[in-house]
Specification:
With 304 residues, this protein is an alpha/beta fold. The protein has helices spanning 6-28, 34-48, 67-75, 88-101, 137-147, 162-186, 197-203, 206-209, 216-225, 239-252, 261-285, and strands spanning 55-60, 78-85, 106-109, 122-128, 148-160, 228-236, 293-300. The protein binds S-adenosylmethionine (SAM).
Amino acid sequence: MPAPSAEEIKDVNARYHDVAAADYDRKWGISYGVQGRAQVVAKLQRALGERGLRFGRALEIGAGTGYFSLNLLRAGVIESAVATDISRGMLDELATSARRLGVEVETVRADAAELPLPDASFDLVFGHAVLHHLPDLPGAFAEFRRVLRPGGRLAFCGEPSRHGDRLAGVPKQAALAVAPAWRRLLGAGERLRLEDGEAARVHGLEHAVDVHAFTPAQLRRLAREEGFEDVRVSGEELVSGWFGWINRTLESTAEPEQIPPLWFQWAYHGYLALKALDTRVLERGLPPAIFYNLLLSARATADG
Ligand SMILES: C[S@@+](CC[C@H](N)C(=O)[O-])C[C@H]1O[C@@H](n2cnc3c(N)ncnc32)[C@H](O)[C@@H]1O
C-alpha cells in the first residue's frame, strides 16, 4: 500500500478526532480541577526544566478538548491562550468546557504547519501529544518559530518515544491474554456494543492517525534546524506507563458500566504510586530514550 499523503493524514486526523471528541475527556481521565491542574503544571515544568515560570500570550497546537490550555489558564501559568486544532469537534468540546469553567480562550481551527496567526505574537508555543500526528514536522516547527517572539519558549509534552512505543506493545499483548480471566474476576461482561456507521468506520482509522514515534536526537535536530536554541529533551513514565497501558487495554475489553468503581480507584492509586517511582527514581537516572513519553523545550533564537 502506498504511504498516505500529508493531506490524507490531516484529513484522517480531523475526522477521527471529530468523532473521538465527545468521549475524549472520559476515556483519558482528563479533569480541570486541582488534580488536572497539578498534572499539567508538573509536565510543563518538567519540559522547561524550570519551576515557577509565568507566560503572557500563549498558543497551543493540537489543543484537543483543552487539557493543557484550560488547566494552565486556571493555574495562572499563562495569561491568555489561543487554542488551535485541526479538529472542529475537539475545539467545540474545549469551548463548551471553557464556558462551564468561566475561562476565556480563543479557538482557531488550523493545521500546525499553516497557522493563520501573525509573526512574533506569542511568548509560549506549547502542545501535548500532538507532534506525532503531524505529517510536515519541519513546516510545523518553522511556523512555531515564526509566531514566537524572539526569545519566546517552545514546550511539547507527551510525545511517544520510539523505544517506549515498541515496549508498550508487550503490556498490551499481555493484557489481552489475561483479559478473559480479569473480566471473570470482576464479574464484567465482554464488550459487545457495536458502534454504528461513521463512528465505527472512523475508529477503524485509529492506527492511521499516529505517524511518528521519536528518538530524543530527532526532536533535538528538528528544533535546532528550525531556529531554536537551548534545546532540552527529557523522558517520563516508564513503569507507570506500562501499568496504564495494561489497565486501559483490559478496560477496553469489558462493558464500561459493568466494571466496578473499585477497580478504577485501584487503577488510579496504583498509577500514582508507580508515577512517584518514575519521577523520584527512574527519570533521574535513566536515559530519556527508554521512557514512553518525551518532552521537548527550546527557546526561539533572538536574531530570528
Ligand atoms: C492525542 S490528541 C491530544 C489533544 C490534547 N492536546 C490533549 O493532550 O488532550 C491530538 C490532537 O492533535 C490534533 N491534530 C492532529 N493533527 C493535527 C494537525 N495537523 N494540526 C493541528 N492539530 C492536529 C487532533 O485533532 C487532536 O486534537
